[in-house]
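Narrative summary of target 7.
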Amino acid sequence: MTDAVSATLPSPSGDSSRQPILEARNLVKTFGKVVGLDGVSLALYPGEVLAIIGDNGAGKSTLIKCLTGAEVPDQGELLLEGRPVSFKRPQDARQAGIETVYQNLAVSPALDVAANLFLGREERRKGILGSVFRVVDTKGMRQKARAELAELGISTLQDVTVPVENLSGGQRQAVAVARAAAFGSKVVVLDEPTAALGVRESKQVLELVKNLRTRGIPVILISHNMPHVFEVADRIHIQRLGKCATTITPQSHTMTEAVAIMTGAQTA
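Modeled conformation, tokenized:
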């Protein structure tokens, strides 16, 4: 299936008229003579989990960087809620409502859970204490952090005053996902969220992904773990050699077929 065809696949609900939240059209990105992306298109619809899979060098990371402002595509266009956008840096994407949780998490171990949720977005006390003396509203942020964690169904982080360095890998991932969910009003991007986690912690993260979808927040999931992808994804975008090989669903293809397409052993 070509990029042009995959980009016009109907939305998961079957309503082809539904507008994508985030759409990429014919993205091209080169690094000297190396082609990172070769005319890749992608569409993310409201309330869905779109997985992106591909072998090493397939262009997954480059695609995500172009979607989130870490790289600027040489050609093609991005649309957010149907409007053209141009992200020159990750902060531009964050301000537009696209939050990314990278594999290295980017949490601050010395800070507590609440402080990490509001990292870079600290709220100040009301009145002169906040406006003049710039006093941080620690109590208010902790209350909001508890509410956010409860809404996401995260029961393993009941104490938001605990430093992140004392948490397990799965709990740290939960903090990073919760931060993205709290501020990613339009799209949450998860880059290999279960790569360094055990079975139990991976299950907790997958439940978080499902909870985000239940809340109506669309998720882009990058993962090498096929069972995890097939458990939570509504659609699966397969990258190969800088192009989109095809877009499938867990109902239309098996894991074996997805891997075969990803490696080139089978055509779409």
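Residues 1-10 have pLDDT under 50 and may be disordered.
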